[in-house]
Amino acid sequence: AQSVSQHNHHVILSEAASLELGCNYSYGGTVNLFWYVQYPGQHLQLLLKYFSGDPLVKGIKGFEAEFIKSKFSFNLRKPSVQWSDTAEYFCAAGPGSGTYKYIFGTGTRLKVLA
Amino acid sequence: ETGVTQSPTHLIKTRGQQVTLRCSSQSGHNTVSWYQQALGQGPQFIFQYYREEENGRGNFPPRFSGLQFPNYSSELNVNALELDDSALYLCASSHQQAGGGHEQFFGPGTRLTVL
To answer: Who among B56, B100, B107 is closest to A43 (CB)?
Structure first.
C-alpha cells in the first residue's frame, strides 16, 4: 500500500538550531516527492520537489531535502532555523505518471523559539 | 497570475444536509484535485478532474461527487453529510502533461463544520 510516514509530530527548536524532519515513503513505481509548508492561517505552499536527477534538492527559504532511494527517504533539512519557520510541514509523494494524486504524511508541527 | 481560489471560506451544516464547495483553478491549469484534511491529519485525496472527467478517486464514498467545468473550475458536492465530514477541504490545480510529474498548487481551503 502507498504511504508516507513523518516520524516527528512536534518539534521545538531554538533559533539558529539545525533542523531535520524525517519522511519515509512506500510507493510502487516512479515517485515524485514534495515538501509543503503551512504557515499559521495560510494555505499549503510548496517548499521543494524532487522529480528526477540530482537527489539533493534545494528549495525556498534555505530548505533542502535529500532523496535516498535505498532508504525510501526524503528528509527535509535547514542549517539554521528562524522564528518565522514556525509552521506545519508536510511530506507528500505522487506518481511519475497517471492519475496524479498525492499521498501526504500526517505533518510535523515545528515551533521555533526566539 | 491568479492563484487557486475557493469559496466559501467557512460553512456550517447539519447532519443529512448537502453541500457544494467551489474552486477556481490557477490560470493555465487543466487539472483539479480535491483533498480532505481532518484536524491533525495530512490531506487525503478525494478525486481528480482532468478535462471535465473524473480521473481517479481515493477511498471516499459515492456521496462525494464533483464536476469540472470548461473553464477548469470545479465543484465538490457532498450529500447526506455526516459528523465525520467536518474538515478542511482543499482544492489543488495543476497542469497535467504527458510523461512527467507536475506539482499541485493549493487553495486556502473551505472549513466545513457538520453539527
So the answer is: B107
Angstrom distance (rounded) from CA B110 to CA B115: 16
B52-91 pLDDT per residue, tens: 999 889 999 999 999 999 988 999 999 999 999 999 999 9
From chain A, pick out residues whose CB is under 8 angstroms from the CB of B101.
32, 49, 51, 94-97, 100
B45, B101, B105 ranked by CB distance to A96: nearest: B101
- Which candidate, B65, B67, B63, B61, places its Cα nearest to that of B80? B63
Q: How far apart are CA B62 and CA B39, in angstroms?
A: 23
Evaluate whether B104 touches A101 at the Cβ level (below 8 Å).
no
Other Cβ atoms within 10 Å of A105 Cβ, number: 26
Lowest pLDDT segment from A12-26, A73-87, B49-63: B49-63
The DSSP H or E segment spanning A111 is: strand A108-113
| CA distances (Å), origin B109, targets A59, B20, B41 | 24, 13, 14
End-to-end CA distance of chain B: 37
Report yes or no: A32 and A94 within 8 Å, Cβ to Cβ.
yes
Contacts (Cβ under 8 Å, ≥6 apart) of A79: A18, A62
Q: What is the dihedral of CA B79, B85, B90, B94, to 10 degrees?
A: -50
- Distance from C-alpha of B18 to C-alpha of A92, rounded to nearest angstrom: 30
